Amino acid sequence: MAGKLTVYLRLMRPANIVTSVADVLAGIAISGYFFNLKFEPTSFYPVVLLCLSTMGLYGGGIVFNDVFDAELDKKERPERAIPSGLISLREAAFLGAFLLLWGIGFAFSYSNLAGFIAIAIAFFALLYNKVSKHIKFIGPLNMGLCRGLNLLLGISVIVPMLTQFYYLAAVPIIYIFSITMISQGEVHGGNKRNLYIGGVLYATVILAILYFSISQAQSMAILFLLPFVWMIFTPLINAIKNPVGPNIGKAVKAGVISLILMDAAWAAAFGSMWAGMFIACLLPLSMWFAKAFAVT
């Protein structure tokens, strides 16, 4: 049983799931829900529901990535769970469907709006895995849209705030677009052009968060932005110097895990410093999972 659970976790990429929880927490912080929040069990009920929702949605999307790539992975990544025979294609598809329905169900248990956002996340995750990942520009954009909607899932905890801050979804879209662009050379190596584009997009995201922290008079966000910059640019620069598969893989892995620091910076930029600190504390957990289970 323990062995089967380990296989399921390999499919779900737990380090990545932790980053999706950070996205939702950042969205909740942006909505202002944490302001004057009473530390009572019922106060955190919506937070728990939306975090459980994103765990299912992201986990299910990642599982279906391997389901749809099963034939390709036999050649390129035979060590993965499905091509190695550790789990059947049917079992993996069942797990992915269960997780997506889990995510949608928990979202609807909070509100219809959150439920419809969850359905949209599930739809675009499946669209990416099956179709758009094979299309140069559309694939990275599609993947970024999933993360943008994930941020909105958190903001939807207070419905009026969703109409006020919906445009912030553009920032994670840009960030994930850049990571997906970089990852295109992960298996066979990449060209420096994609890596430079990724670097420019990274800088755009950093400037956007910095702008909001200044406009909101929340300079403490820099405490999360500085390590965020270091974490994403150090491996990216190494990959630019030598754009081979392993170096690009490290850049992608750092980009994904560093989402937690980006989310912490978002929370701090909107005045929820303690929420930002809690989100940042998820980083060691994600890094621990990343040592035990693949990120990409």
Q: How many structurally independent domains?
A: 1
Q: State the end-to-end CA separation.
A: 25 Å
Radius of gyration: 18 Å
**Order of secondary-structure elements:** HHHHHHHHHHHHHHH
By CATH reckoning, the class would read: Mainly Alpha
Q: Could you state the CATH homologous superfamily?
A: UbiA prenyltransferase
The largest pleated sheet is described as: none
Please count the helical segments: 15
Rough shape? globular
What is the third-level CATH name, the topology?
A: Tetracycline Repressor, domain 2
Transmembrane segments: 15-35, 47-68, 113-129, 165-183, 195-214, 220-239, 275-294
Membrane topology: Multi-pass membrane protein
Pfam families: UbiA
Subcellular location: Membrane
Q: What is the topology?
A:
Layout: H1 2-12, H2 14-31, H3 45-68, H4 70-76, H5 89-110, H6 112-130, H7 138-155, H8 159-165, H9 170-183, H10 192-215, H11 222-241, H12 245-257, H13 259-269, H14 273-280, H15 282-292
Helix pairs in contact: 2-3, 2-7, 2-13, 2-14, 2-15, 3-5, 3-6, 5-6, 6-7, 7-9, 9-10, 9-12, 10-11, 10-13, 11-12, 11-13, 13-14
Transmembrane segments: 15-35, 47-68, 113-129, 165-183, 195-214, 220-239, 275-294
InterPro entries: Prenyltransferase_related, UbiA_prenyltransferase, UbiA_sf
Protein name: UbiA-like protein EboC
